[in-house]
Amino acid sequence: MSATRHTRSFPFALAAAVFASLSLNAVAAQAQTSAPPAAPPGPAAVSPPVAGSVPAAPSDAASSLERVRASYEYGDIDDVVEWARPVAEGRLDATPAQRALALRYLGIGLYLTGRAPGAEAAFFELLRLRPDTVLDPRTTRPDVVTFFEHVRTGHAQEIKDSAHKHKAFIWNFIPPVGQFQNGHTARGLLIGGVEVASLAMTITSYALLSSWEQPHHEFTGHPEAQTMKVVNFVSIGVLAATYFYGVLDGIGHYNDLPDENEGSGRGRLSLSPGGLSLTF
């Protein structure tokens, strides 16, 4: 009798479970239908740009020139002009070397963007500042180098007059300063080196002789004193000869432009994208 009751109650339990499942599905479907649609992704979902993400303008010449170099290497000539201007025009404090480099970039940038008069003005100012400047043909387009040399030729007298404005005749009597102002950098370094070495030897030998000297100008116990006297005399002679040579050389080349001194052993200043370089 008990087994018969369980068999009859099973269809009713199954029907109740199916009914409950259908009710839950119906409620879920109604909830989905009544819920507002989700907003599609769009500009509103994108985070706003962070304030200050645009790089600030350089506040010093070194930073500005770094940006100029990067723009030049990537071929962004408009940025080359934009960032070279503040240094070239003196709006940012710069050393003469930094200003020369900025003028070089500015001239190239203006020429490449079709502004030849501005490029001529920048190159002319560069040549007034450093008359011996040359553009490196390995890193600069040939038409720019040709244009630069035309500026040099067309303004030769003005460049020469400007170069002489910054020279003083009196410096020829203080070698190697006269050599440096005449553009003979290598010769100036050589003269200066000989002067320093001979002066040091003169002072050293004189100090030793003074410490060894006894009454009546005797050097008992110091047989090397005679050799040291010779060294002292020779060093004085070398110092005097070097000084007079430096004076005569400075006066003789005072009216030369640096680029007129080919083969004289001077240094040449060259500008390339990497900066200033001095070759002999």
Low-confidence stretches: 1-10, 33-53, 258-280
- Class derived from helix and strand content: mainly alpha
Query: How many β-strand stretches?
Result: 3
The total count of helices amounts to: 10
Return Rg in Å: 42 Å
What's the CATH architecture of the domain at 61-165?
A: Alpha Horseshoe
Please give the oligomerization state of what you see: single chain
Overall mean pLDDT: 78
Specify the CATH class of the domain at 61-165.
Mainly Alpha
**C-alpha end-to-end distance:** 123 Å
Order of helices and strands: HHHHHEHHHHHEE
Helix content: 55-70%
Work out the strand percent: under 5%
Largest sheet: 3 strands, mixed
Characterise the protein shown here.
The protein is built from 10 helices and 3 strands. The model is unreliable at 1-10, 33-53 and 258-280 (pLDDT under 50). A 3-stranded mixed β-sheet has the order 1-2-3. It is elongated. Helix 2 runs antiparallel to helix 3, helix 4 packs antiparallel against helix 5 (116-129) and helix 5 (116-129) packs across helix 6. A hairpin with a 2-residue loop joins strand 2 (268-272) and strand 3. Helices cover 62% and strands 4% of the residues. Among the domains are: 61-165, Serine Threonine Protein Phosphatase 5, Tetratricopeptide repeat; 169-253. The protein has 280 residues and is mainly alpha-helical. The relative contact order is 0.08. It starts with a helix and ends with a strand. The longest helix is centred in the first third of the chain and has 33 residues, at 2-34.
